[in-house]
Amino acid sequence: xxxxxxxxxxxxxxxxxxxxxxxxxxxxxxxxxxxxxxxxxxxxxxxxxxxxxxxxxxxxxxxxxxxxxxxxxxxxxxxxxxxxxxxxxxxxxxxxxxxxxxxxxxxxxxxxxxxxxxxxxxxxxxxxxxxxxxxxxxxxxxxxxxxxxxxxxxxxxxxxxxxxxxxxxxxxxxxxxxxxxxxxxxxxxxxxxxxxxxxxxxxxxxxxxxxxxxxxxxxxxxxxxxxxxxxxxxxxxxxxxxxxxxxxxxxxxxxxxx
Length: 258
Prior knowledge:
Blueprint: E1 12-13, E2 19-27, E3 31-36, E4 41-45, E5 61-66, E6 76-85, E7 88-93, H1 96-110, E8 118-127, E9 132-141, E10 155-163, E11 165-167, E12 170-173, H2 179-193, E13 197-204, E14 211-214, H3 220-231, E15 235-243, E16 247-254
């Protein structure tokens, strides 16, 4: 029985029961060797392009999902890792693909006030001047139901980033130099310049942090660009998650400090 069980009716539940193991090593960015509690050693897919600082220590307890797709070379996917923050065990969601699902779930089931007032939601929509794809697009602003939207247009472009790096209860993004992340910030600024809303949404898949900050000590260009685009009207929102072996839920808004 997993000790991390705290379920809610609106959680993003894992599709299958997770398998526990111990991390042997993470390598080649997208691979990790794991020894399962059964003693079997397997290679799992790691859906995370960052360095996973503090979340990829050999010997860490990890949890994996297993796909039913028989064509997959590596059927297991690394989902969670247990870290010790001030000697307190904490589960962290490291699958960056999950972050988009979590934000979509939050908006469609328990929409935060800052994103209310739209009638339609779409995903992976082409946009911007460099042929990017926005993670989530809200359309059809209903100003009668939301007076907080100001004079912005009838669309809201939301770029989602997964956050795992922490220090002293502060979450930092990114955990590796990210030219792609800088590109996305500039695309959001372009959207604002055309008269629409643009939101940088930081999805923190852990419960032990109180704020999010740009990791200028890792990527100074990203930090500087974030400050620049926020001054131009891009918005920044962050939510932290409750993480268990059964599900992950975004439960609390936390400030973004630049």
